[in-house]
Amino acid sequence: MNFRVIFESKGLQVVTLLSPYLRRLQLLPPPLSLTIKEEEKVEMAGPSGKKEKVDKAGPSGGGGGKKKKDVKKETGLGLSVKKDENFGEWYSEVCKHEMIEYYDISGCYILRPWSMAIWEIMQTFFDAEIKKMKVKNCYFPLFVSPGVLEKEKDHIEGFAPEVAWVTKSGKSDLEVPIAIRPTSETVMYPYYSKWIRGHRDLPLKLNQWCNVVRWEFSNPTPFIRSREFLWQEGHTAFATKEEADKEVLEILELYRRIYEEYLAVPVVKGMKSENEKFAGGLYTTSVEAFIPNTGRGVQGATSHCLGQNFAKMFEINFENEKGETEMVWQNSWAYSTRTIGVMIMTHGDDKGLILPPKVASVQVVVIPVPYKDANTQGIFDACTATVAALSEAGIRAEEDLRDNYSPGWKYSNWEMKGVPLRIEIGPRDLENDQVRTVRRDNGVKEDIPRGSLVEHVKELLEKIQANMYEVAKQKREACVEEIKTWDEFIVALNKKKLILAPWCDEEEVERDVKARTKGETGAAKTLCSPFEQPELPEGTLCFASGKPAKKWTYWGRSY
Amino acid sequence: MNFRVIFESKGLQVVTLLSPYLRRLQLLPPPLSLTIKEEEKVEMAGPSGKKEKVDKAGPSGGGGGKKKKDVKKETGLGLSVKKDENFGEWYSEVCKHEMIEYYDISGCYILRPWSMAIWEIMQTFFDAEIKKMKVKNCYFPLFVSPGVLEKEKDHIEGFAPEVAWVTKSGKSDLEVPIAIRPTSETVMYPYYSKWIRGHRDLPLKLNQWCNVVRWEFSNPTPFIRSREFLWQEGHTAFATKEEADKEVLEILELYRRIYEEYLAVPVVKGMKSENEKFAGGLYTTSVEAFIPNTGRGVQGATSHCLGQNFAKMFEINFENEKGETEMVWQNSWAYSTRTIGVMIMTHGDDKGLILPPKVASVQVVVIPVPYKDANTQGIFDACTATVAALSEAGIRAEEDLRDNYSPGWKYSNWEMKGVPLRIEIGPRDLENDQVRTVRRDNGVKEDIPRGSLVEHVKELLEKIQANMYEVAKQKREACVEEIKTWDEFIVALNKKKLILAPWCDEEEVERDVKARTKGETGAAKTLCSPFEQPELPEGTLCFASGKPAKKWTYWGRSY
């Protein structure tokens, strides 16, 4: 039977109907509900080597719909819940589909190649940009001695509860316990003090790509909140506050570009409140994303000005042109693998992941659609030629010529993995010297002549990237609600809105709002005060305190 | 006075004579003996923020030789010992010159940008090569649960004494202590067991770039032996032993290329003995380097075939085409930041580091040599233009226009940092539209017309790279000694030779040799049995046991 006909006429529906049958033939992965149980076993008891015997080498079937009722509980292919029905479960299932593997130590996750490739693409971009800014890479140790870690009081208070301690090596106890870096300010700055003598040693701009550990107990979430994660941390020192302030914003702009230009995730640039700023720093700027489904903000990345606080603690002084001793001005800035989680939450749908072309390790997947007595070899050759032409043009393309899966299974499988563009080649395409393209973001199909393949595909990938951003932006805009009073605030909060409110900018008041909104879904707090401030009419009052408002600030629950 | 004249006539000698004077004017760094004391303080008490006030903004002097006797104790610029006099001290001083900073936790070191750049260049090469082999990058957690870590008995016996354990987070004890990975076999393979089902899931080829921790107590050495280090670890699984065997050698060849083509360090490819192979593996191949000054071998990098041992422990099975269950064949392979230490030991001289052009982050440094009433601005412009032309051509070039250092100081400073090629531009060069090149590897000077600058420099850099390898190879060859008897063995060992001996290949005998050669300089052991075996005449006997010899094997003390 002709798959093209089936899958075009009924689309995924059909796969859904057939899935128990296909699955028995091992043409579909086991329903994820199963996988999850397995995961949980792993989480508790350590990964079991055991597994039911499977024969993936079964016949390449796919026909004959039956057992409708068996299927009811499933949505799309493999996902057991819809994004809108149970977001948490949906997110965990999507992550588990080749992005993440749950690990036998809770709060730790395995980054599989499908997600690691995304991290590497962002890394290539960011690393090149900071090198243009004369930032140099280095590597400081994973371990911190207690004395140094605790040198900056506010700072350590901020991190102490989450610090993991090494106390033994082999069978013997260490003389002093040694901490694992939760971040590296205290690791690095004693040496900044040593390396910086005169004004000519400034600015000092270092960055490192590394892992950090924060032993959190609030429920772990892949990418978003894990006990070990990968990040870059930049640490810079300047002679003047002006230079530091300038760099804070240059870096923040790079973070915006990572989210908006690479991950197609809209973010707000703004200033963190006193309560929410970096422990020990002067002020913190951030890019904030928002997840409509949960009505929660996500701190996307932060660029801190540390002022002279650490310089004072660690005696980072320099001699200026006049021969006087001054303290340096410092910044630190970081973004982490959390970025990937925000991207998944923003774009994924009931079919699974949707990857923006710019970060997808496979931008185009080419799938042959053979038809019984048609020229199968010709179709396969056309697929290979297509991949060759695209790769030649610098497009990341792959073919899926596996003979043990049906085209329909492959469509759904690559949709689940989020590949931005699918190319199908069947007998009719061969005759007409064309290929069929199918967009992952909106499902739009198009027949394009093989003559103009490369230009068309390049154009399509750009359109997909742009559209994903636009759609995400519209969804977020639809959630923004401007409020003036406490009652409006509570209503909007319960409606999962991204709340923009006039605020008196007093720490006391934010703490009070947190206290008054505490609940099992978490308290509301400030996300950021956007740099782009709407007009604040004379005499506007703070929604929470009734005092004169100083600025517009975004409020909401957050990750 | 004209620096060119001074520095050409007497070379560094002059700087040496002048160094105390220059130093008082802050035209030279403090003698490293000072720095070392500081370091030691750091190692014991944590880095001190305190520092003597220095004014680097002093006049740009350099003339007038005096106080000969003050200088006697010093060699070259800043190094307090010669490579041949006290190799250990020499190595530590060279490392401290911007490659490494000693850290307040013993056995941990800071990789400064000057060494990190070398690591990144090797990483770019190797990462691209393994991606061609279809190896994919991933990231597994830093932490291992005890149960998994101890699953493979020989393996854990090999690592147990060096494992660091996390037992606390914040103030609370963990339910079970958690290990920090010394290597990731046991971290990864439970998931290989889960991911691999049928023959179509093979080969599985993963790699990760990460940090590992081995809490060694034998004396730490920067790069060569540290408690935390950076490496790449590849872990692959195949359906057949043939495929595994083939990959072991493909990877080993990449390691050879890193050493010989990038670091200009000659290595021997060979097989490790049973005593020296990877704990839990089937066999271990390695590239072995040799340090003539200490007469010690260094294991440069290893490519292991693990056979089916881990597959058995972790139940990594697959179903073959015939539907039968089989165990996979596995490899693991790694190289680390140790590579950088081997390079420093091999090429450095009494002036400091010598970097091979291929890994030098600065391949060419351009230094202006102004002369009192000469056209200083013209000279500076010529330097900038030269750097621009070289950078344009993809050569990593930098200018040193600092006005607070004399040309002589700059020469010595960049020689200490090991920059392969120096370009000087003075008044005469400006007149003759030429530049003066000075090679770091052999000191050869050349005047080249600015017209053919780029071609000349490219050619010179290639010559330097080739020459550094050749010189290192000759030095090593001169140390190789072929012996037949125990007496010859002992004599050669005491002469710090790289000993090639006929061996019966019995574990007992190697253990016996170790026992009989034990001493404060360490026992002798096998380094490897080279793949290129000299002819072994019928009836040749083992130098140690007198039994029939099976192969030629390299023996010696090692790092």
From TrEMBL, chains A, B:
Name the InterPro entries for this protein.
aa-tRNA-synt_IIb, aa-tRNA-synth_II, aa-tRNA-synth_II/BPL/LPL, Anticodon-bd, Anticodon-bd_dom_sf, Pro-tRNA-ligase_IIa, Pro-tRNA-ligase_IIa_arc-type, Pro-tRNA_ligase_II_C
One GO cellular component assignment for this chain's record is: aminoacyl-tRNA synthetase multienzyme complex
Q: Give all residue intervals belonging to the Aminoacyl-transfer RNA synthetases class-II family profile domain.
A: 141-356
User: From the record, what ranges are coiled-coil?
Assistant: none
What enzyme class is recorded for this protein? ligase
Provide the E.C. number(s) assigned to this enzyme.
Answer: 6.1.1.15
Gene Ontology annotations of biological process type:
prolyl-tRNA aminoacylation
Q: Which reaction does it catalyse?
A: tRNA(Pro) + L-proline + ATP = L-prolyl-tRNA(Pro) + AMP + diphosphate
Q: Where is the composition biased (Basic and acidic residues)?
A: 43-56
Q: Name one GO molecular function term.
A: proline-tRNA ligase activity
- Spell out the residue ranges making up region: Disordered: 43-71
Q: Which UniProt keywords apply?
A: Aminoacyl-tRNA synthetase, ATP-binding, Ligase, Nucleotide-binding, Protein biosynthesis
Give a single Pfam family match. Answer: tRNA-synt_2b
Under what name is this protein listed? proline--tRNA ligase
* Taxonomic source organism: Brassica napus
The gene is BnaA09g39700D
